Amino acid sequence: METYAQRSIRHCIDMIAPFELSDHQEENGQLQFYQFMHSLYREMYQRPEEYMVFPEPYEVYMAKLKKQGVQPKKEKEHVTNARESTLRNTFQQAIQFYATYLYRIGVKSEEIDKKTGALMIRKEDYTEVMEQMNRIHESQYNAGRYEVLVKGGIRVSEIGDIVHIVHGEYPRMMEGIAYLCKAPDSKYKWMNFLRLDFKNAYAPIPTVNDICKTLSARSSEAVRKLENNLSGMSVKVRIKPLRGIVSDFKWKVEYVYKGKNICGFYADNESFMLCIYFNHFQNISEFANLLYEEDHDLYLWFKEQFPERLCKCPNNRRVTFGDESRRICGLSNRAEIVNPDDHDVDKALYVLRKYRNIGSCQ
């Protein structure tokens, strides 16, 4: 059976962008780095322990909870499990160790040796990178991780005060690393590196179409319907940058109209959640009453799209659906349509159009 750590590794592969060459560099360096990282993740998935990724502690702990009859975390109760979180973060940091190391040396590098293809970095800067890498969970395994890179073809040598890093099988690979790492600083720079997104590395923002390339056909179709329903409006798109690409990291996209979030989605290759924003909890109750009078079947569907939140935080709010009272998160004030089918998407878009007075369906 697939472990949760393996699922996280698979998620990394799923979130990588399709290979699309940039307009500013020869293909070899970019393609070789793309091939190297794909190979690394595939082999890590098959033999995680060899990459110093240890699935067992997390699996044993979760099995223990299951045996004890401990219920999984209920989001509406905001129950957290610090031990589970630490174990998950530990193996996820181990998975991203290799990308993090390559990114940091790329950012600190001076130039590429034109003859050998080696990445050149000052010795003092390389020492700083190594110190930074020691701050992750279970850094005692870092020596083994560097050995994995050596066995995989990475060669590190010193010539005077300069460290040279090159790959034996992929001699131009460091050009691909340098291209991504020398992109202008932006909130998407790290994300573009993780996703090996050469096409967008120097663009100001990724596009929703780029996101859809990593989603299932069903989710991509839902996004297409959403955007078609917003066409012709002065809508701004906000895409939250990914801080990681292991499991638990999803795309977050928001559509803003007249300064307010009106809808959006959270998505990855396995899940999709469409959100309709109401901006204030009282708006939800008022709109529910309107639907109750005009379309009772739609009203019944509508009220099921607001997950109950039983936390005691000061932002908890109470909304009403007819005679029923429910507590929700007053920070989001949104309908959450999880893994919708075609009928759910159509209903959600009808609600969006009606609430925002957008117009007829497209």
Characterise this structure.
The chain is globular, with a radius of gyration of 24 Å. α10 runs parallel beside α13 and α11 runs antiparallel to α12. The two termini are 44 Å apart. The protein has a 5-stranded antiparallel β-sheet, with helices on one face. A 4-stranded antiparallel β-sheet has the order 1-2-4-3. It has a two-stranded antiparallel sheet with strand order 9-10. It has 362 residues and is of the alpha+beta class. The chain has 13 helices and 11 strands. β6 and β7 form a beta hairpin. Helix content is 45%, strand content 17%.
Helix-strand layout with pairing:
Elements: H1 4-15, H2 27-46, H3 56-67, H4 82-108, E1 111-112, E2 119-122, H5 123-133, H6 142-151, E3 154-159, E4 162-167, H7 173-181, H8 189-194, H9 208-212, H10 217-230, E5 235-240, E6 251-257, E7 260-267, E8 272-277, H11 281-294, H12 296-303, E9 316-321, E10 324-329, E11 334-338, H13 342-356
Antiparallel strand pairs: 1-2, 2-4, 3-4, 5-6, 6-7, 7-8, 8-11, 9-10
Helix pairs in contact: 1-2, 2-7, 3-4, 4-5, 4-7, 10-13, 11-12
